């Protein structure tokens, strides 16, 4: 295989921003490996859409909150890279998988805390650590944060704090991996109309209209507003951008 054909790994690629990122990457000629936790049918559909764009794709199961499974995942990924691409490395790691949380600080339980931190920070940290040897030189890492690290919204403290840790981690990755030409950046979406916060929108009628009214561009964000930014960070045009947190919220703070 010609190394001009790049490969991206997108965690949580079966829905929402991850799905759109994976499909947009394929439209740029980048092959994609997506992970899913329990939505295999949706993941398989994403694979079909990617293949329809002329790119190669594979879906692998992964629970990003369970660090104990990472060694077996890395082994499985290595096998897939050899079998499907005849390669030992991939080019871009997109740490996208996650879960939402809107519990007020005074009501957060230790169990809830562990679930959010394991998913959004511990999992991202150790999965990245284990995958760095498989990332090709001059590759890239895109971690997912949130605009809630820059603005405050009641009930989002735990989620935002975990994402804040990811932003700091990303800057250190950029510094430590720079010698290999590997770039590391963070994407910070605003409110997006996806399944990720679907229950919140259902429980709070009018919330979408309120968010739209506070957005400079006058509407809710969509997955396609974010996926394109993620994919752009995997192009040569963004090759001089590293250690940055790029907010994609359609608003002005």
UniProtKB/TrEMBL annotation:
Highest rank taxon of the organism: Bacteria
InterPro entries attached to this UniProt entry: NAD(P)-bd_dom_sf (IPR036291), SDR_fam (IPR002347)
One matching Pfam family: adh_short_C2
Alphabetical list of SUPFAM superfamilies matching this protein: NAD(P)-binding Rossmann-fold domains
GO molecular function, one term: oxidoreductase activity
Oxidoreductase among keywords: yes
Keyword terms, alphabetized: NADP, Oxidoreductase
UniProt KW Magnesium keyword: no
Family affiliation: Belongs to the short-chain dehydrogenases/reductases (SDR) family.
Name listed for the protein in its UniProt record: Short-chain dehydrogenase
Organism: Candidatus Desulfosporosinus infrequens
Origin organism lineage: Bacteria, Bacillati, Bacillota, Clostridia, Eubacteriales
């Amino acid at each position: 295989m010609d190394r001009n054909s790049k490969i991206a790994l997108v965690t949580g690629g079966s829905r929402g921003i991850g799905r759109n990122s994976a499909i947009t990457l394929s439209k740029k000629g980048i092959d994609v490996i997506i992970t899913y936790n329990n939505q295999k049918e949706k993941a398989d559909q994403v694979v079909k859409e990617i293949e329809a764009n002329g790119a190669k794709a594979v879906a692998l199961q992964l629970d990003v909150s369970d660090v104990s499974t990472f060694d077996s995942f890395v082994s499985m990924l290595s096998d897939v890279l050899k079998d499907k691409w005849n390669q030992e490395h991939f080019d871009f790691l997109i740490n996208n998988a996650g879960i939402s949380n809107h519990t007020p600080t005074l009501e957060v339980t230790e169990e809830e805390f562990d679930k959010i931190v394991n998913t959004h920070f511990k999992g991202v940290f150790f999965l990245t650590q284990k995958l760095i040897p498989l990332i090709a030189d001059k590759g890239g890492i895109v971690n997912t944060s949130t605009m809630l690290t820059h603005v405050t919204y009641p009930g989002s403290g735990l989620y935002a704090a975990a994402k804040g840790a990811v932003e700091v981690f990303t800057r250190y990755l950029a510094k430590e991996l720079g010698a290999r030409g590997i770039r590391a950046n963070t994407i910070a979406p605003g409110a997006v109309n996806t399944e990720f916060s679907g229950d919140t929108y259902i429980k709070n009628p009018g919330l979408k209209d309120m968010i739209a009214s506070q957005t400079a561009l006058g509407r809710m964000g969509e997955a396609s507003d974010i996926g394109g930014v993620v994919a752009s960070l995997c192009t040569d045009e963004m090759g001089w951008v590293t250690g940055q947190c790029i907010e994609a919220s359609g608003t002005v703070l």
